[in-house]
Amino acid sequence: MTWGKTTLFFLQLFWTVHHVTAVHRHDIYPYGMFYGDVTLQEGDDETSEVITLTKPMYFYEASFNILYVATNGIISTQDLPMEKQYVDDGFPTDFPVIAPFLADIDTSKGKGSIFYRQTESPTVLKRAEADVRRGFPDATFTPTHAFIATWENVSAYEELTRSSGPSNRINTFQVVLAYNEKDTYALFLYPEDGLQFFGTRPKESYNVEIELPARVGFTRGELSYFFFSRTEGPYYSVTSNEQSVKNLYQKGNIGEPGVWLFHVGNRNSFQNVVPAQQEAVLTKAPPVLDAVFPDEDYTDPDEDEYSIDPDFQDPTTTEFLEPEDSSLLERLNQEEPLGQSPLQPSVSDPGEFPHPDPRNLPPEDVTQPQRPLPKHAILQVYPNRVKDVPPHPSGGQVFSVEEKVNFDSGVIHYSTDNKETCERFQQQCSQNAHCTDYSTGFCCHCNSGFYGNGRHCLPNGAPHRVNGKVRGTVLVGGTAVQLDSIDLHAYIVVGDGRAYTAISEVPEPVGWALMPVAPIGGLFGWLFALELPNSLNGFSITGAEFTRRADVTFYPGNQRLSIVQTATGLDTQNYLNVDTHLQGSVPFIPPGATVQMEPFKDTYQYYPSLITSSSAREFTVVSAENGAETFTFQVKQNITYRDCSHGHRSGLETQELRMERIFVMYVKEERILRYAITNKIGPLGAGEPEPENVNPCYSGNHDCDTTAQCVPGEGQLFLCQCATGYSGDGRNCYDVDECAEGLSSCGAHSHCVNLPGSHRCQCESGFEFGFDGRTCQDVDECRDQPCHAQALCSNGPGSFQCQCQPGYHGDGFQCQPQNGRPKTQCEHHRDSLQSENGGVPLVGGFIPQCDEEGQYRSQQCHGSTGHCWCVDSRGQERAGTRTPPGTPRMNCDESGRPKTQCEQHKDSLQSGNGGVPLVGGFIPQCDEEGQYRSQQCHGSTGHCWCVDSRGQERAGTRTPPGTPRMNCDEPGRPKTQCEEHRYSLQSGNGGVPLVGGFIPQCDEEGQYRSQQCHGSTGHCWCVDSRGQERAGTRTPPGTPRMNCDEPGRPKTQCEQHKDSLQSGNGGVPLEGAFVPQCDEEGQYRSQQCHGSTGHCWCVDSRGQERAGTRTPPGTPRMNCDEPVIVAPTQRPETVCERWRASLMQQYGGQPNSQHYLPQCDSSGEFSPVQCYGDSSYCWCVDRNGREVAGTRSQDAVKPACIPTVAPPTMRPLPRPDVTPPPAGTFLLYAQGQQIGVLPLNGTQMDKQRSSVLLALHGSIVVGIDYDCRERKVYWTDLAGRTINRASLEPGSESEIIINTALTSPEGLAVDVARRRLFWVDSTPDKIETANLDGSDRRVLFEKDLVNPRAIIVDSPTGTLYWTDWNREAPKIESSSVDGQNRRILVQDGIGLPNALAYDSTTRQVCWADAGTKRLECISPNGTGRRVLQSNLNYPFSMVSFANHYYYTDWRRETLITEPALHGAILGERLESWCCGNRGRVVDQERADRGTRKSRQTSPSIPKCKFTNMKA
């Protein structure tokens, strides 16, 4: 007795511990509209629209690209027949079926919903992979795609009578298809209480009480067998009677009741469906006491405010994903505007699933506290969870799983071995992004030059477009207006945050009423807003996949409009797709009224995967009926998106969106609704800076191209940098054709398609993209069994071959037994064509068809072209029987006159649209004999012309409508070249010229008219007798046309420049680009203006901008025809006066009391006392305007300053532009806005005698070099994007030699021997060269450069050296001065090689490295490398002279000289960054002598090298 009780006790204990519960409804895969699902239309027998799979899926042995979802509990790979043909029949069906519950289901009148979607969500794929591993432990399966269909609360079809009511029984079930390029698995899920009916009654049961059990399983459908026979394909059935249907939720085959797994397809071979074998049986579990992991410490009185979907609590995720403000969503759901599923799935009792206490985890496993989510937050849209983690109450914490930590929830087993990694999921990143692995998963990050969330990246600065549809129902003044998929297009100028939105075909009542609903277009303003410092626009956070919901309430009428905008990614043109759904009511606005909206600000709150905002705005309606009326509306919105929780977050909590200019209008005639909004986004509470303190990049007042990014610098300085995919100087950018220039990333079996700013790759015929979305793979046509049953299919690259098996003959598509008779002529013909290429027919070649007797079939068809024709017994084509594809074929067995060419032409045009002629298309007229009538007329255009016997137009016979027609029976002359040209363009579209296309004009003799004009663009030009355009004769619309009868001249430089810019876009200048203006002689007009920016400037005869002549928009222009003449008695402006004038212009001519303006005396020199405006903040300056240390004072009494400039004399003074340097040896240095001179006493720097050589206010001098032969200094100006030079002679002025196509000019080098100039441009990563006057400019290198910095030239050997400041792979390279023999000189053991110099004494190249802190030298052949110093701080630039190296320390702001042969380092403090002479020159007199000598003994000359130390 005791033993029996003990046994019973252990049995009860065993039963208690090993109970298994059915899958809960909230444990099935996520579904519903908030997860991006599509809802199937309500009804009794509905089928979805065709669903094109992103990648094909294997079902059995065949590959399928499409799916259909049907009401009656099935999915098929082909369109379904009517339900009466299958719903009441047994299994299998005669078409392919995946049937989780095949029965007569009815969802009409709100009786349930059916959802479906395809997804690549890593979380869904990871969960499916884990489920497959449970059922097939030995399988190595990693899904890349999934398709999910869910039948929620659906009912059985019932015929109601007076004596019977509805049964109210409903079912919920789900199917998940997970697949990759090789295998497909199907999951059927039946949640607990999900099946309440187990079959349905046939519709034609004739009052017989019979119920057919639901059919569950898979069927391949009928397959072709032999000729036109068909046979039943394989199938697999799960159910056979009512009890087996009940077993669906009571049992399972992967260890969990209600979950069934099947292997349903394989690429190689597949006989039939294979079920999993891990059986589970549903048992009733006793209560479980929650004593191990108490929840008391984590309860929250507001626990009900949070509804967290337990399916998606992922131990790999460190925070909630996809929360949303459900207070708004609940209200949306009450009205059910979209018919979505319930928004808040039920949450299990916390007692059911005890969860780990974070206090029991190792310290590194507890996540850091997160920003709390808003109340009513729910998880939706982009779930990133797996189902194995039980739910936790609101007060709980989410924990991460690190390496070596295993987690077992009782459902699946998780470890870090199956986490998401870049190796498995990198294809989910944008092609312009890189993937990074973290401890819990991977994240995508956009590459440099791009912005986005890593999954979707766009080039910085490039304009963007948005396309989409607008749907829904809007109530206007009691009238419901339906919007049926009308077009929405948006264009955003990202460089200044301007967003233009247009919605077309908007019906008039709702068009006026939607004018105040600017939030429709406001989404795009937020997405691509101009980013102020320390801020991110929307696209940088969400990428191209998100859902935005806005609830707009109007007052005082309390009308309410719901806006749901769903972004579904980037299309093939790299444009964003956004669909908009509107539902609700809006106030009535009188027709013809205008709506005005003032600028406003909106605060955005940022949470993981959720962004919210709430604001109230006013708008004014001005109408003739009511005058001006002011109304208010409130906008509450949230944006849910896919957030990557594994990597570092942006840290954003709040941002402020500033909508500065808002323009709305409805164009009645065009039925277009337009919104235009200028947007900026920045930190909250940053305050409004003074306008003069705002950088033009942030104010939008820059002149960068619309396809360029404005890069702010210090103060008012900025750079224009063309967006990735564009080239130019930033003010004029042009699309780079990556396809033509070989820059595409397209691989084998693909071709490149150029796009604005980018490109895309397209697979060749017979190939398709693999699962990585980037590699083209061969399409295996044989898997679809295209050949005859008695033929073998052989797949080849891009094609396939069908060949009859031994004992059969035919073309492989039709095979017949040979029966021992000899081959006929037709069979010999056919087989000879097939065997010419190794038994494989030529792709696209014609293969004759033979009948069963081996004779030519009377009708032959070309499989590739679709043409068919009749043949005689010899296989020869019968004249007049050929028919084009898509037209009725001839009856080749009937005798009669064959169709003529005219009749065939006429039939082909009429049958192109189902026998109905195309509207507006030309149809030829034939006579009784079937020949072309001699006169043809176009019924739509009214034009008439004569034709020959072939139907070809006779030149010069066309007459316009309303004019007398030609007599076509008279003989005519042949067509001229012009007439042929015109006819070919007109006949390319059925006789109708292409809209907007150019059609040449011919005179009465058929010759080209000397002047041709484009009817659409308005451009006109002169042509020669061959119709070729004469250079320099093109005139834009609205300007006087050229006299084309005058003899022409060759194009000038200006005309060629102008044409090159215009012809880059089909003869139309690029929008926003600068196009030069030429005068009547083809020369550059002396004044040029940029039509888009409004800036104007003067140019010289070469079109080069004249320094100091640029005027901004709205200011008086310079008189460019008047030379600036200085009267003999008038002295030139001094440095002080020029600086003062420059600042006055910067302050807009109205400086305030806080602005600084230099005070100049009557002689133009700096006043000894300088002050800020009218304040007492003053100091003393020296003769060069530099502050005297220790004199700054804020007292009411100004400091006593001693004048340092002698009184002016009566004799003329030298011009102050260039102050002559002292005699002897000296260093030239650049310090920001000036170039200075530092004399040398031997090898010691004499800083007491240092002086300013050239003051360059507003410049940033970077590279500097010196030409000893002509005593000229050359420099690069980063601020002005120019290269300049000036003579060292007294009074010389600076000269701009290059001012186009420069972005970031840095290092500069002069080759004295060859009279060439070399420089590096670090933004486009180029090295260029030109003559010393700027002519003969060309690019030496533009590849394999990342950040070129310093450059030097060794004139005697003609060798060029430069550094590449690439943090990933820094290097020093060399080449000849003509760009030959390029090689890497140093690439190991260097970090940041800033400075570069050539030591002519040791004949070595030396560099100072800010990364390794070393000064090293090496011989030009790569040998003899040595370290001179290894304790530098941050060297920036360096020169060599007299066994000494002079280099600057950026951080210490010190110029240091180091002896090359002994170890002492002399550091001398100098408040500038300097550089020195290199070579054997010891003083200026010797330099002069050496220069004179060099002119006689060139190229062996002394070298004079002067280089800047810091930008």
Descriptive tags:
15 helices, eight-stranded antiparallel beta sheet, 32% strand, mainly beta, eleven-stranded mixed β-barrel, 1511 residues
Mean pLDDT: 76
Rg value:
41 Å
Helix content: under 10%
Instruction: Extract low-pLDDT stretches.
Output: 1-19, 284-417, 1124-1129, 1207-1217, 1460-1511
Q: What overall form do the CA principal axes indicate?
A: globular
- Quaternary structure classification: single chain
Largest sheet: 11 strands, mixed, barrel
> How many H/I helical runs?
15
Beta fraction of the residues?
25-35%
Strands of the widest sheet, in order across it, are 27-28-29-39-38-35-36-37-31-32-33
Can you count the beta strands?
85
Could you tell me how far the N terminus lies from the C terminus, measured between alpha carbons in angstroms?
98 Å
Structural class by SSE content = mainly beta
Could you provide a short overview of the structure?
Helix content is 9%, strand content 32%.
Write the layout of secondary structure elements.
Elements: H1 2-17, E1 38-39, E2 51-59, E3 62-70, E4 74-76, E5 97-102, E6 105-106, E7 113-119, H2 122-135, E8 145-156, E9 170-179, E10 183-189, E11 199-200, E12 212-213, E13 215-219, E14 222-225, E15 229-232, E16 235-237, H3 242-250, E17 251-252, E18 259-266, E19 274-275, E20 280-281, H4 326-335, E21 407-408, E22 413-414, H5 422-425, E23 433-438, E24 441-446, E25 450-452, E26 457-459, E27 464-476, E28 479-493, E29 498-503, H6 508-513, H7 519-527, E30 530-531, H8 539-542, E31 545-555, E32 560-570, E33 576-586, E34 594-597, E35 600-607, E36 610-623, E37 627-641, E38 654-667, E39 672-683, H9 696-699, E40 708-712, E41 718-722, E42 726-728, E43 733-735, E44 750-755, E45 758-763, E46 767-769, E47 776-778, E48 791-796, E49 799-804, E50 808-810, E51 815-817, H10 825-835, E52 859-861, E53 868-870, H11 901-910, E54 935-937, E55 944-946, H12 977-986, E56 1011-1013, E57 1020-1022, H13 1053-1062, E58 1087-1089, E59 1096-1098, H14 1135-1146, E60 1169-1171, E61 1178-1180, E62 1226-1231, E63 1234-1241, E64 1244-1245, E65 1251-1255, E66 1261-1267, ...
Parallel strand pairs: 27-33, 30-39
Antiparallel strand pairs: 1-7, 2-3, 3-4, 5-13, 6-8, 7-8, 8-9, 9-10, 10-18, 11-12, 13-16, 14-15, 17-20, 18-19, 21-22, 23-24, 25-26, 27-28, 28-29, 29-39, 31-32, 31-37, 32-33, 34-36, 35-36, 35-38, 36-37, 38-39, 40-41, 42-43, 44-45, 46-47, 48-49, 50-51, 52-53, 54-55, 56-57, 58-59, 60-61, 62-63, ...
